[in-house]
Amino acid sequence: MSPATIRDVAKRAGVGIGTVSRVINNHPSVSEATRQAVELAIAELSFSPNPSARRLSLGKTLSVAVVAPFFTRPAFIERLRGVVTALAETPYDVVAYNVETPKQRNRYLTELARRDRCDGLLIMALAPTDEEAERLLAGVPTVLLDCYHPCLSRVVIDDVLGGAMATRHLLALGHTRIGYVSDSPASPFGFVASRYRLQGLQQALYEAGLTLPAEYHAVAAQHGVPEAREAGRILLSLPEPPTAIFAASDTQAIGVIQAARERGLEVPEDLSVIGYDDIDLAEFLHLTTIHQPLFASGVEAVELLMDAIEHPEMPPREIRPYLRLVTRQTTAPVRTGRLAGSAASPVQVPSASA
Amino acid sequence: MSPATIRDVAKRAGVGIGTVSRVINNHPSVSEATRQAVELAIAELSFSPNPSARRLSLGKTLSVAVVAPFFTRPAFIERLRGVVTALAETPYDVVAYNVETPKQRNRYLTELARRDRCDGLLIMALAPTDEEAERLLAGVPTVLLDCYHPCLSRVVIDDVLGGAMATRHLLALGHTRIGYVSDSPASPFGFVASRYRLQGLQQALYEAGLTLPAEYHAVAAQHGVPEAREAGRILLSLPEPPTAIFAASDTQAIGVIQAARERGLEVPEDLSVIGYDDIDLAEFLHLTTIHQPLFASGVEAVELLMDAIEHPEMPPREIRPYLRLVTRQTTAPVRTGRLAGSAASPVQVPSASA
DNA sequence: CTGTTAGCGCATTCAC
DNA sequence: GTGAATGCGCTAACAG
Lengths: 354, 354
What we know:
- Chain A is an alpha/beta fold.
- Chain A has 13 helices and twelve strands.
- Chain A has three domains: 6-58, lambda repressor-like DNA-binding domains (434 Repressor (Amino-terminal Domain)), CATH 1.10.260.40; 63-155 and 294-322, Rossmann fold; 159-287, Rossmann fold.
- Helix content of chain A is 42%, strand content 14%.
- The model of chain A is unreliable at 337-346 (pLDDT under 50).
- At the A-B interface, α4, α5, β2 and α12 of A face α4, α5, β2 and α12 of B.
- The structure holds a DNA duplex.
């Protein structure tokens, strides 16, 4: 037995379908008496307007598309949580498009750029090309989260600043031999965060009269603990290894710490390590890191999007969430003649089993 | 400029709209010549059928709703990944409904039980009541993932068995004083896994001629590391504390390990700890646990759902993913006069900072 | 093979 | 205030 239609309700309430439509949409010009009659009929038939019909009639999809490589990094999940939570407060359905391959990325970024597919588009961690941005701009209100294009509204942190903040912390601790571990600056999806963080590192180094030797930048084959461990090994087996390592993400910092332990190095006594993101695990592992408001940035992206939907002609806006250095127990003053001053307890990270 | 419609294409190609519809839907009875003409027009206008109109006309929503408390536990995310990946292979959109409050739970479970809302419904970790199940059964093809109702198709592990497996492992190591840490058996969402796991524990104990003393079951106020740590403290401060603790989830096992370290107890030398789920973190922490195929179970749930959509009259089916004991380094033979035999290296979990 | 027509269920004009 | 008519864009059934 299929659901009741607006016509069934009209017949039962003894009114026209126009009237039923009016009470559904809280239109003011309906007498109290008929409104009650209609509402009774609605309740009796447990009627609920057919969303597909509404969408077609309204010319709106009542949904926003969220496209992202959701499951590649813990930080994405936390941002997504903010997005979904904020969207639940709106009348829009959340349609999720997970991208795991470049092909999917390209497909979604072009196919979803139409008003008849969604009322708004939220793109996470996938910077559009100029061509894509143009199509998006002409097609559907769009907000970028954790990525950047000058023509589109976005919520994106200042990764150059973050990289500099991490580096300055290490410099302040007296470190001058600072290494950098990151994934490839040329990822298939166009992730650029690690490149900007590197820029920040170099900038801070420059301000201190230092430079980053080429061999101090180890590129992991891919984002993940084991790959970062390998990169860490390379850095630590240098003739003159760094005394501190900045990892482009917390996940990679963990790999670096494992590499240190393999060589019998204590963190932070023998090696300082700083990460980036402040994922849940970071607190648990007492990892010094750059905190960014993940959940909140998802919420803000939704606010930007609602704005863009309501005022389609507004110029793009940018929100830059604040970054914060979180000093925990994986960084310490560089070891000189005597032992490091602060008595941070040794950090315990399980060594790799493989 | 709004997107082209089927009528625009028809005019441009010099055919009727019926013909255009036929080529769109790969209907066989179209001559090659006209097909090509139509396809040309489609390309020139970059036409794409309006999904809302299609849905209304077809009487299908072309989407499946996924309702779950997505972000409460790491294991859910991994299952979700399987669900989304499998759904990407189908013609259905994925509409996500996150539940964070009982009110949301109730609302979604009733509102989504209609054919005009979705073509299929996937419910994760939220066992429906009998009343809800009935409505679901009458309303829309539904599959349960990680929860149970006899009237609905489901993918659900045998938690009683899993609890027994964990317990038998500890028994085999010679432990007889076995504690249990879990969250409340009466969660607001109706999570029942920890209750079944407890049943399995009791059953295995019974088979060994033992019983679980009431004080050996510590209930955490809520699911999370700190709460489980508190529960662990209670167990370990007993006059005769357990020599092994079974935690209802890996997350909780971590809390227990922290509690042990606080008291200066070595894991596994002084205390064996076993978890449940085998989340990513478990391998990293060398946690002995009960593995369940999280990703695969999401995929299987989707297969069940596609089946249910295609064959609405089929009786409910059940898939029980296999469980597997993963022995790592947090369990060891019970300490007797001499030291434990196996030379597992001590497990290193950071102690709580707070 | 192909053009035309009749809905799909609702919102939104219009007249009344 | 309210009922009836028109159209949203498409699919499917029907004639030709």
